[in-house]
Amino acid sequence: MDTNTLATAKKLDSDDVAEACFGAAARSHFLLEDGLTYLNHGSYGAVSKPVMAAAQRCRERIERQPCRFMAEDLPVALRKTADRVGDYVGAKGDDIVFLDNATTAINAVLRSLVLFPGVDVLTTTLTYGAVMRTLEFVCDRAEARLIPVHIDYPVPDAETVVDRLVSAITSRTRLLVIDHITSRGSAVLPLAEIAAEFADRGIQVLVDGAHGPGMLDLDVESLGVTWYTGNCHKWLGAPRGSAFLWTAPDRQAFMRPTTISHHVANGYIPAFDWPGTKDFTPYLTIPDALDFRARFGEDAIRDYCHDLACRAGDYLARELGTVVGTRESMTPFMVSVALPKRFGAAKQDVADALIRKIRDEYHLEVAIHAFEGRLWARLSFYVYNDMEDVDRLLHALKSVE
Ligand SMILES: Cc1ncc(COP(=O)(O)O)c(C=O)c1O
């Protein structure tokens, strides 16, 4: 049986055949270079061939009658896509708008808010750099106080994380900006528990779920947060330049895109659905990415990739004589493993040099982050990875000078 074709994958219903579609057998659906070991799906995703083809079909459809497409087809297609994304993430399509990436969505929220002197904004020390810079910008400008709450790494249990954040709340706290899954350290934070504590105190919560869609079984509406943004171009497999923003209905009237365009005064959806002329293909191809994943099965993807991440983390840490950064319950499809001290100082330029060396000399891509006093390799696992990739990384780490 040819397990390399999607046509075959579509018919799968028994576990053993489904298993055969993951790992090396799934590589043929992607454009990744021959011989490349790709353990960094988390940074920029990797678009599959069927989704690339769908994007090309979408572009050709636009070019057949650009004016009619923009004026008549696009508004309908965007709303239909929002409904499909809503179904997938547990939300109504009417509460969802599209943006190019999570950074833009975070900017739209933070720059729509009116902060002022005397207000405290909480975040964590694991917050992504671009988000932290945006927070610094808006807080400095408003003379509000930004408080990055320290989260120990390796990450303690969920209760300790919640307690740490709750104990940082003051009578002046108005906003929490929190990752669903951290970039450095790749930890799934206990979002529902955190959101419940903050909602009880009337504090708004903005979730950076850049890594959420495609890794987590999301039920955004039930989380009790104010905003949730997720990238569709990472784990969901849509073309780059596709993210969504969900806003609680009672906050939508206050939302403005960072780029003000024609319909800014006409409400949440009109304001975001027309940001000016651009290529809307990445948004409109999200349903094709969901269709591609459906051929593997959402549960099967989650089981395969999470299990691989947990096994790989334990194996690599044991072989290197180090530790894994997260317990299993906080490990998504990415796992971070400490590198031995011999790899050098905990500085990002040391990490970047190591990334380049491994890329050039071993044809292998892996993220390495410097934080909490050491270097951490972050391994990402998607449908095309298997344990042989981890052995190749181990070999590279053991031989690299
Ligand atoms: C936690 C987190 N937030 C935000 C981003 C930014 O995503 P984008 O570059 O798509 O805006 C990333 C990117 O890796 C991330 O890991």
UniProtKB/TrEMBL annotation:
Keywords: Aminotransferase, Pyridoxal phosphate, Transferase. Residues 74-393 form the Aminotransferase class V domain. InterPro entries: Aminotrans_V_dom, PyrdxlP-dep_Trfase, PyrdxlP-dep_Trfase_major, PyrdxlP-dep_Trfase_small. One of its GO terms (molecular function) is transaminase activity. Pfam families: Aminotran_5. It comes from Pacificispira spongiicola. This is Aminotransferase class V-fold PLP-dependent enzyme.
